[in-house]
Amino acid sequence: MKKINYILGVLVAFLTVNSCVGDLNVTPIDPNANTADKALVNEAAFEQFLSGVYLGFATSGYYGANGSASISGLDGGASQYIRGLYHHSELTTDESVCGWNDQTIKNFHWMNWTTDDTFIYAFYSRIFMQVGMANEFIREAKASDVDFAKKQQYIDEARVLRALAYYHAIDNFGNVPFADETAVVGVNPDQISRADLYAWLEEELKDLVSNSALPDKAGTTYGHVNKSVAKFLLAKLYLNAEVYTGTAAYDKCANVLADLMDDGYSLHTTSAGTYSAYQELFLADNDRCTDEIIFAVEQDGVNTTSYGATNYLIFASTGGAMDPDEMGISSGWGGLRMTPEFYGKFSSDDARALFYTDTQNADIDDIGEFSNGMAFRKFRNRTSDGGYGKESGFVDTDFPMMRYADVLLMAAECQVRGAAVSGAITGFNEVRARAGVARIANPTLQDILDERARELYQECWRRSDLIRFGKFTSGYNWQWKGNVKEGTDVDAYRALFPIPDSDRLANTKLQQNPGYGTNK
To answer: Which residue, among 320, 312, 360, 315, has the nearest Cα to 338 in the 3D structure?
Structure first.
């Protein structure tokens, strides 16, 4: 993944998203000059095409941070997948604010976005570009006469990556356009209901867990998906089943988690000495933490550069009087901080309280002022031995999208909700012990929610958690929610983002989510 070979450039030259949010498929620019059967001639070609699907989660385009973005008409940094996921998952919550005046960025925290929001369109487009690329890989691989030992494994990896994109679609947008590798290229897809997409994802992930050629943990190449990733996604789907379908599925979630807990992962508890074991999960050499990280989106300061992903998390979290050298970077962008409500969830002895507070005020009078709100120091471009990443302008820190600590916290939640998982509360307290805080013998649901906040902040789970616990649009307020300093309830329909106007104009089959105006 971290070295883009020439053939991937050839593939990109003939594979482009044809109205990526219109028909979800990747089609040739010039089928008479460059077609898949002419380029996908051996295993290496398939491997590098699959690398392109992985790369779509890591960068804005295939030619580096300063090259053309894969989605035309959108800023390369703002349209990167993880950056868009952060906008939707964290800026909309108590966890994070952004002080910039970039277009409508503040509207996420104010929770007053509209149907033509550029950042929403960017993330929506990125999701379905990923679906389209995965569909095209699966389609071409199945149709190709080229045979090799790992062919089915590669197909199944693409299926997992497609399921990951569709998981973010169901979580953020609900009823979305749907196509798989059997869809007719050039035809606008029908819209699938949230419940039906849930059913499709459930069957797809169950098949990937039980019948796929995916490797187990021991046989996994770092940065690639395996059966544990499919299990993790299936557990997340079941954990949020009541939100997606109206019917809870905690028993199903518990069963998947019990299986996943036997896959050989564990908490990362041994520190190299310079930083805590917890912080090592978010450093420039976190690719060594394969004991806990189940799946990471790779970054490399030389070979895989981006203005999104962890580059965004590190640079945008650095500002004011903070020392960029401590973060392993050349300078800060001065954007991301947290609300006082979120900061107040941490005790002084919690090793996860990786914040800069010296010149910061916990209270936020002005979102645009970096000194208002405590700053993050969780992700850094420093190595576990105290060194630096390869470059100070781009980071080497991978984004840990799935961690074993989350598995333990999901298990504890299932246990408290009445779906037993052996060792769940012990695992919950192991997470707390690593942080240096006291065990809780009988955690409540509020304890679970707060622990998830402390353990997983900036990892793009907070919005989903607050919705599942009934505390997103109402029931819990934080500064500047609803564009009111003390925070206020907002309309319940804000639990879903709108289908962008531009895609509804391109595909008249699409209906807008309730609350966002006309469906015509």
So the answer is: 360
Structure tokens at 313: 């998390």
d(CA 303, CA 402): 23
Burial of 40-75, coded b for 16+ CB within 10 Å and e otherwise, reads: beeeebbebbbbbbbbbbbbbbbbbbeeebbbeebb
Residue identified by tokens 């980071």 is 395
Give the helix ranges, DSSP H, for 240-348.
Answer: 241-245, 250-260, 277-280, 309-316, 324-327, 340-343
Lowest-confidence segment of 32-36, 146-150, 404-408 by average pLDDT: 32-36
Report the SS3 class of residue 457: coil
Q: Residue 54 in contact with residue 1, Cβ under 8 Å?
A: yes
The token pair at 292 is 């806990």
Pairwise CA distance, residues 318 & 327, whole Å:
8
> How does strand 293-297 pair with strand 399-403?
antiparallel
CA 127: distance to chain centroid? 10
> Which tokens sit at 363?
């209270």
Produce one character per residue of 306-343: b if its CB has 16 or more CB atoms within 10 Å, e if not: bbbbbbbbbbbbbbbebebeebbbeebbbbbbbbbbbb
Contacts of 359 by beta carbon, 8 Å cutoff, 6+ apart: 320, 321, 371
Tell me which residue has tokens 């052996």: 422
| Backbone phi, psi, residue 294, to 5° | -85, -40
Q: What is the mean pLDDT of residues 33-46?
A: 77
Note the helical H segments in 144-267: 151-172, 194-211, 227-239, 241-245, 250-260
CA distance 410 to 125: 29
Residue 213 confidence (pLDDT) above 70: yes
The percentage of the chain sitting over the pLDDT mark of 70, rounded to a whole number, equals: 89
The tens digit of pLDDT for each residue in 414-439 reads 999 999 999 999 999 999 999 999 99
Tokens 């996921």 sit on residue? 85
List pLDDT tens digits, range 106-142: 999 999 999 999 999 999 999 999 999 999 999 999 9
Nearest residue to 367 (alpha-carbon basis) of 108, 119, 49, 51: 108
Residue 304 phi, psi dihedral angles, 5° rounding: -130, 85
Q: What is the per-residue DSSP string for 319-365?
A: -TT--HHHHTSS-----EE--HHHHTTS-TT-TT--EE-TT-BSS-S
Cα 475 to Cα 211: distance, rounded to the nearest angstrom = 42
Q: pTM of the full predicted structure?
A: 0.93
Question: Which residue, among 93, 172, 107, 164, has the nearest Cα to 134 in the 3D structure?
Answer: 164
| pLDDT at position 457 over 50 | yes
